[in-house]
Amino acid sequence: MSIITIKKCPLCGSIRVKHEFFCKDYLVSGERFETYICKQCGFLFTNKFPSNHSIGKYYDNPQYISHSDTKKGFINKLYHFVRKYMVKNKLKLVCKQSKKRTGKILDIGCGTGYFLNAARRKGWETFGIQKNERANKMAVEYFKLFVKQESHIYKFRKSSFDIITLWHVLERIEDLDEIMEKIYDLLLPDGIAVIALPNCNSYDAKHYRTYWAGYDIPRHLWHFTPETIELLIKKFNFNIAYKKPMLLDAFYVSLLSERYKKVNIFSAFVKAMFIGAVSTVKALHNKDKGSSMIYVLRKNG
Ligand SMILES: [Zn+2]
Asked: What letters, b where the CB count within 10 A reaches 16 and e where it falls short, cover 102-118?
């Protein structure tokens, strides 16, 4: 297995990076991985992680729902229920922020295609990129969507999209610079990129620490906060036009985190609802504190 070791901060380039903590992959492998932090800019990232070519097996678990669509178990059932509501909200948000009713949407890491399917129903022309073959096949066969492998991103023409979305995807992409440049190239001058990410500065992240499900190591490589995402997007000539906390995520992530602590399902549910509620109240007072955040990016100038 080839391992990527990072010696320089991927955001600011500083070599002043140091070990921060170990984190276990509770979801799939049970293996331990390291996180590093940059002393210069505060960016937290996974280090010594499996390369893009070897990461596949860390997604290879029927429990990995955004790819397999399993409805087994209480948490997965809840996930499906919440997803329906979230898809509606996401579509509302992208339409409002883009100030367009139709156009072309590219969803990078589109999973099994629920968001794109909803967008197409509203009259949008939809395109998806999905690396995982099982999810890719489901999106194509079940929804009859245009969904291709990652390499297809180089086949789209410059300035072709009104909207590019990455719902909980950017944190998984090995080459941050390459993807950010590509998003910039593919967007129309008045286009928007919508990026959803976990926020390791949220109340639930601080509460659960290494148990926090938002770290999702080694699948998540980059652990952004509103401060560090700002540094990234400035580098690529974007500005943040709008941001908002994803309020329901605090409950879901807290529930997963409780389960990682091997708490039984009943007390996990009670505790997670409490921590989720506290996190939500904090995020209502300070929108940079959401368990997950949505950032809407526009090109500068
Ligand atoms: Zn840095």
From this structure: ebbbbbbbbbbbbbbbb
